[in-house]
Amino acid sequence: MSRRAAQHSGATDSLDAALLQVVQESAASRGLLYVLPPGADALWLTTLTGAPREMAVPWTRVGLTDRVAVADAVRDRRLVWVGDMEEMARRYPRTALVLPYDFALAAAPLLARDAPVGGLVLLWPGAHPPRLGAGERTAVEAGCRRLGELLARAPEQRVRPVSQPRILPHPSRTRTPPADAGELAAFIDRLPGGACALDGTGRFTFVTPEAARILGADPADLLGAPPWEALPWMDVPEVEDRYRRAVMSERPTSFTAVRPPGTLLVFELYPDPCGISVRIIRAGLGADPLPEPPHPAADPADATAGPGRASLLYHLMHLAGTLTEAVGAQDVVNQAADQLMPALGATAMALMAQRDGRLLILGHRGYEADLMDYFDDLPLTEDTPAVRVLETGAAQFFTSFEELRETYPHAVHLDGKSSWAFLPLVASGRAIGSLVLAYDRPQHFPPAERAALTALVGLVGQALERGRLYDTQYAVAHRLQGALLPQRLPSVPGLSAAARYRPAGHGLEVGGDFYDLIRLDDDRAAAVIGDVQGHDIDAAALMGQVRTAVHGHAATGAAPGEVLGTTNRLLGGLDPDRFASCLYAHLDLARRQICLASAGHPPAVLRHPDGRTDVLRVPAGLLLGIERQADYPAVQHRLPAGSVLVLYTDGLVERPGLDPDDAVAALARLVARTDPTDLDRMADRLLDHAGEPADDVALLLIRLEPPDAPDAGGAD
To answer: Which of 16, 38, 68, 559 has the most CB within a 10 Å radius?
Structure first.
């Protein structure tokens, strides 16, 4: 082993040990370790303990903007606690849809030098109290520090995320020493029915002869396999669902299943973090002394190929949940790759859509970019599998390149894969694109797997159609928004300025927030910020008219109260059903004074050169458009050289359940901690602090330069 390989192995061992330590010290049932590659926008699951890999497949890759607890924890750099099923359904509906079981969850960021490098997820059984205990929190925080430090010392652990997370044995609880083997066998034989044990991955580790006879199978065929794979008649959603329920909640459960041709069996499951003990009896009987012929084995090709019905339902549910949250075509590509590839064992994927008689690659995973460039922008006249499935709407499956070449003699084997599935993406009854899944190992694509692929990509096609429509609407909406805001702030001697606009979330709605900086003469300027009610085209159009009116009245040299009063009367005539808030500031640079008037708008914040901040309270007049004869009193404040004026809309500070005055005070404290000499950096920090706002945000920062400072002028 090379020195570098030895170091990598040592770092992996240290991370594994640290994960098991925090799981043990916090008394958690399961633990999942995520890493955040440098510059990446997604977390990758590298290691887990206490749960089978199959249950973690949908969360192998988690985007930082996904509605998932670990994404929130890492993005916001805080611990996220979900105490029960009801809270999970309310805050994270996608997770609750796929895992509707009783358990508690903690997600925490892993930091190195205050930068996120990964995430930790811990789960507890349903009997856990609704709050995280003080000792548990201490253990979690200490574990996060250890893991963060280890990732900082071994950055190579974050460079190449693993495609399959490692499974670690759960740190064993203290157990009673085992009895003599003969006594144990005699004890089991005296119990009615059969007994078996499943490990943390859901596979048989122990089967009594009586259990094997009741199940109609050879013990050698059971050991090392999950029940729903070793016994095809157990491949029903209820069986795997009950198993998942036992794993997640650690509460005993039971179910019945029919062993062909008609034997009803009762399964009792008794779980703990290390595995599940299972008791099996015939329904209505305490014992089953009558011999039964073993059930004939199913065709091995059918038994092992493709996802079973329970797994298919599991992945269908999760894919459906994720795609309902997908925004834009690229988001659909990412979600499809995250869910389809690990669920189906594919190692590469490409998603294509037709446009203007050509087939364009919208996104890919597992393929090199150069190879995708070769196949991108193909004319629909080309005879290729991706084009053919688009034209016919019928999927094509190839178990080998030789088989593919029989159908397409001119095909070239460029990707080095062994098998391929070419699938049409259908929406509104028509094919809109193609999806290619490629496999490193030969796949036989039996009927069950073909049905699974067809069902799964049907969801992708519908989501892609919505995503492309969203992209078109988004581009139009935000071009309109941009056209209504200043393209560039004017240069004003003695002032520097920076502005930002951020739409809320992923919505298509056009906002009514606006800002402006107006140069009146060499010694005077005006600044304005406002928010027109509504999020639609009408609100945007009205916003443009309000901004134009304010700009025009300000240019005449009108006082702040007069500017708002005149604009108010205009707005009442334009649209009597729309209102707007507005804050107008007249800056006298020679006298270093500012005169403010407000129409129901949040107050400005002034940062003094020494770091002190003042919230510039102004008697709030009525919102524009409510009462045509409303008055807008003005208030003057000093504007020291080197001070920074912060104007903003309510999206920057408003949060559910947070008092508005407290929100503004928190903003003032943040402004005090920022560097006043770099307004662009200051603006970015204020927006980052806001996170994902519930409403649009407009932000305007203005700095009165000291006399000896060079004129900075406006900034975009």
So the answer is: 68
